[in-house]
Specification:
Distance between the termini: 14 Å
Number of helices: 7
CATH topology of the domain at 91-224: Uridine Diphospho-n-acetylenolpyruvylglucosamine Reductase, domain 3
Strand order of the largest sheet: 6-7-15-11-12
Low-confidence stretches: 184-204
Mean pLDDT: 90
Number of strands: 20
Bound molecules: flavin-adenine dinucleotide
Structural class: alpha+beta
Shape: globular
Helix content: 10-25%
Amino acid sequence: MTMNEPAPYVSPSLRGKLCREESMRRHTSWRAGGVAQCLYQAADLADLQVFLGTLPVTESVWPVGLGSNLLVRDGGVAGTGILLHGALNELCVQPDRLIYVQAGVPGAKLARYAALNNFQGAEFCAGIPGTLGGMLAMNAGCYGSEIWQHVVRVQLITRSGEFIERVPAEYHIGYRSVALRGGDEEDSGMGKSGFVPASFSLLASPSEFFVGAWLKFLPGDAEVSRKKIKALLSQRIASQPLNLPNAGSVFRNPPNDYAARLIESCGLKGRKRGSAQVSEKHANFIVNTGGATAENIEGLIVEVRDIVEAQTGVVLHPEVKIIGENKTDE
Ligand SMILES: Cc1cc2nc3c(=O)[nH]c(=O)nc-3n(C[C@H](O)[C@H](O)[C@H](O)COP(=O)(O)OP(=O)(O)OC[C@H]3O[C@@H](n4cnc5c(N)ncnc54)[C@H](O)[C@@H]3O)c2cc1C
């Protein structure tokens, strides 16, 4: 960990905001965890391109959306996080009827926009509290739909600031996982199917990351989609502990079963570690009951995984991404 090293050089022509030693509690839905050595909020795509060009090639860079699937360990994370929410906000219907969406657009906004423009099929995005970039990285989905079912092309920026486009055939796309074919999956920072590192650590320093996508949806009816969105959100409020900070489902569902069912069957609902707790409402959610540390949360994840494996023989694989270093006592 090199938290005390000087922050990267920043050109005076940049229009974005660079924060140093920024608490990631403010940028993750668990409201827990350590600091980012540097965090850059780009003003727009052009500004992001200039910023990447100013960074030393050795600087590790990790994209962040709304932090709704992310835990930063208490010892913090080195390198520079790139905040895309609030920056890459463009959303438009193109002449070919594809919707172009930039990576910082929240799922809820995309769902509403598609509905308003009489497209059907984007309603599921309303319940996912992340950005399009995070949804692409995770192949986020619910109620039988996944984002990559609608992707025609994606737009990426490379670590050196070059824009490229790719098509779905260039990726391995699975349940909550996306990886560039022939690429180093861990290095891509874009998830890996069935991957269970001992510590769940992921070095999220991709050589390229998503800045936008062209999505295809079928023609629909705005009023029908609006009602679907409303029903879907009511269903979520009824089944998920949305009153406490959380990161959605902690584990992927194993084949032909549900992680929540297995966790509940092991009597783990309500299990606590510090201020982190397995939700009483939904066993695959871990909630921050107030002041939980990343260590509380990660420790509980490990505990749940180990107990479920010991009692049922099923190994649960985490869906949430954990980055950074543990806190060391000095
Ligand atoms: C209450 C709740 C309900 C949820 N329900 C669902 C659900 O139904 N279905 C579902 O799939 N998920 C669900 N989630 C999880 C989460 O919302 C999704 O995984 C979402 O796609 C994450 O988006 P984000 O912008 O918050 O990404 P972040 O959490 O910020 O990042 C997640 C990962 O994506 C990477 N990433 C982010 N942006 C980019 C980018 N532009 N390019 C490349 N990589 C990037 C990050 O580096 C990180 O590895 C839920 C979460 C919560 C809190």
